[in-house]
């Protein structure tokens, strides 16, 4: 794949069943877990730190994934770590943050350096999660800056896994089409 670029000896590593659209570009130290998908026009740079994406996670069109440099001032810097069964909506910006499992990041949301999003969270579209903020498990967060809005319902909690599952099915359909060409 021409869109998986080495940088300083590190090349993106893909587990079994991963789909990366031909228009996405991934540089450097990136690890993507089984059955995950990277959709059109995603830019991911694991150049000055690393990116780790879990299993069954989907990064949708136009999203930007980056990290914070390791340095004397920043210490280990901030890698980008995304858990399992995460849906990252179109045009999201994830920068040096940690996302747990079963999370929905809404379209055009931004999550900044040092932020931690615990398991089972929805970050509403257009929200801004400030640096070093922790979003507690089981809640909807919205706004700029993002604030806890309310507890998630049982249906919303179930939807988090279902959304990720839906994208596994979709990426399998894309892979099947590519294999037929």
From TrEMBL:
InterPro entries from the UniProt entry: LbH_gamma_CA-like, Transf_Hexapept/Carb_Anhydrase, Trimer_LpxA-like_sf
Superkingdom of the organism of origin: Bacteria
Name of this protein: Gamma carbonic anhydrase family protein
């Amino acid at each position: 794949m021409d869109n998986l670029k080495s940088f300083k000896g590190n090349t993106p590593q893909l587990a079994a069943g991963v789909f990366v659209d031909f228009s996405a570009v991934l540089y450097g130290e990136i690890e993507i877990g089984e059955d995950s998908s990277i959709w059109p026009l995603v830019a991911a740079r694991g150049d000055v730190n690393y990116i780790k994406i879990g299993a069954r996670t989907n990064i949708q069109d136009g999203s930007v994934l980056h990290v914070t440099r390791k340095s004397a001032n920043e210490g280990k810097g901030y890698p980008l770590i995304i858990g399992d069964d995460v849906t990252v909506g179109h045009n999201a910006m994830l920068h040096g943050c940690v996302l747990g499992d079963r999370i929905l990041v809404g379209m055009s949301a931004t999550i900044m350096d040092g932020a931690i999003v615990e398991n089972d969270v929805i970050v509403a579209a257009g929200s801004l999660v400030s640096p070093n903020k922790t979003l507690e498990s089981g809640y909807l967060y919205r706004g700029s800056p993002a604030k806890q809005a309310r507890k998630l319902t049982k249906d919303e909690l179930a939807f988090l896994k279902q959304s990720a599952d839906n994208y596994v099915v979709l990426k399998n359909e894309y892979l099947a089409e590519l294999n037929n060409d």
